Amino acid sequence: MIIVATKDITTEQIDHIRERVEAIGLRTHVSRGESRTIIGCIGDEARLAHLPLLSIPGIDSVHPVMRPYKLAARDFAADRTSTVRVGNRTFGGTVCPVAAGPCSVEGGGMMAETGRAVAGAGASLLRGGAFKPRTSPYSFDGLKEDGLRILAEVREQTGLPIVTEVLDPRDAELVAGYADMLQVGARNMQNFALLREVGQLQRPVLLKRGMSATLKDFLLAAEYIMSRGNMQVVLCERGIRTFGGEMRNTFDLAAIPWLKMETHLPVIADPSHAGGRRDLVAPLSFAALAAGADGLIVEVHPDPASALSDGDQSLTFGEFADLMGGLGVFAEAAGRTL
Ligand code: PEP
Ligand code: MN
User: Fold this and answer.
1) Closest atom of ligand 1 to CA, residue 187
2) In the prediction, which pLDDT does 76 show?
3) Which residues line ligand 1 (CB under 6 A)?
4) CA angle, corner 117, sides to 111 and 118, nearest 5?
5) Is there a contact between 68 and 262 (Cβ–Cβ < 8 Å)?
6) Atom of ligand 1 nearest to the CA of 208
7) Contact 208/236 with Cβ under 8 angstroms?
8) How far is Cα 297 from Cα 273, in angstroms, rounded to an integer?
9) d(CA 95, CA 312)
10) For ligand 1, atom 4, which residue shows the shortest CA distance?
11) Dihedral of alpha carbons 229, 126, 272, 121, sign
């Protein structure tokens, strides 16, 4: 940690700061510049969290030297992307898996139909929410355990591993009993009780970026899961809230290469929630793969016009097949395959 002193800091104040920092087991190094004095703190930075640094007289600002996330940091895995296995599929390898399916599990028939269609078009995993976070308490909020049973049946029929959302720490074991991968959605990215709970389960987690989360917040959320022992985390950029009103969210394309440099965890993109419109899904998917994404998650529905959630952004089966056909060259340009 580097402490930048106020311009008018006194020698007594410097001595006091050094005493406080050294009392918790760190060493200090003072360097006096022309206009500023800097106090470097050497040792375990985490201990400094116990000091109210900004309220100690003479301190102007403090700057961490180490990254606040350790397990998620790229250094942790010696410069490579970690692989996360979900059923017989792998995130973070040369193949970029595509998860596809409806926003919500609406019934057995539509799921079976969707499972067959997306598997036929080359999807690697089946998505579908059985527990749905809805902005309005009056909206359809999922079929719950019935939805999970349906997903498991369609996995039997198609061989596709399933990824589905868990909303509440109390449901984590139930969902993990059916799902191959647990989705923690944007609205729950900082639900720390949920992050701790899924951190205790040995199930891969798809962690979606909160709509107002910085990338540091995002990696610290991953760190919560990993610090509980579950290292199988895949990050998902799904668009953030900005001032623009034309799109549902703003797709933060730069987040993909930035995250790939900062963490060893696989990073995938969700073009459906990012744009919120069916006609934006293909261009955003192409951009994501070209930018180095390790996979995609895409909403597909047998009849988007009658979908119980997110119909506007859901692809038809035909549109999904076209998307898969168009993705190949972008994956290849990034040195990957589908
Ligand atoms: C979803 O995947 O349907 C979903 C609710 O996503 P997000 O959490 O990114 O909004
Ligand atoms: Mn959705």
Assistant:
1) 8
2) 87
3) 103, 129, 133, 185-187, 208, 238, 270, 273
4) 90
5) no
6) 9
7) yes
8) 10
9) 29
10) 185
11) positive
Q: Mean pLDDT in the chain?
A: 95
The per-residue pLDDT for 31 is 87
CA distance 8 to 35: 10
Q: Are 219 and 263 in contact (CB under 8 A)?
A: yes
Ligand 1, residue 127: give the atom nearest the CA: 2
List, for residues 161-195, the tens digit of each pLDDT value: 999 999 999 999 999 999 999 999 999 999 999 99
Q: Name the phi and psi angles at 323, rounded to 5.
A: -60, -50
Instruction: Please identify which residue in the block is written with the tokens 């900005």.
Output: 242
Given the structure tokens 């050294």, which residue do they identify?
Answer: 22
Residue from 163, 183, 301 to probe ligand 1 pocket by mutation (most atoms less than 8 Å from CB): 183
- The C-alpha atoms of residue 87 and residue 321 are separated, in whole angstroms, by 23
Residues 6+ apart with CB under 8 A from 250: 239, 240, 241, 242, 244, 274
Please check whether residue 84 is in contact with residue 92, taking contact to mean a CB–CB distance below 8 angstroms.
yes
Residue 252 has phi, psi (to 5 degrees) of -90, 80
Residue 132 CA to ligand 2 center (angstroms) comes to 8
Cα–Cα distance measured from residue 321 to residue 299, given in angstroms and rounded to the nearest whole number? 12
Give the chain's residues under pLDDT 70: 78-79
**Distance from C-alpha of 100 to C-alpha of 201, rounded to nearest angstrom:** 24
Per-residue pLDDT tens over the stretch 319-338: 999 999 999 999 999 999 99
Degrees to nearest 5, angle at CA 176 with 134 and 111: 60
From CA 289, how far away is CA 331, in angstroms rounded?
Answer: 6
For residue 183 the two structure tokens come to 């989705």
Tokens 């899961």 correspond to what residue?
225
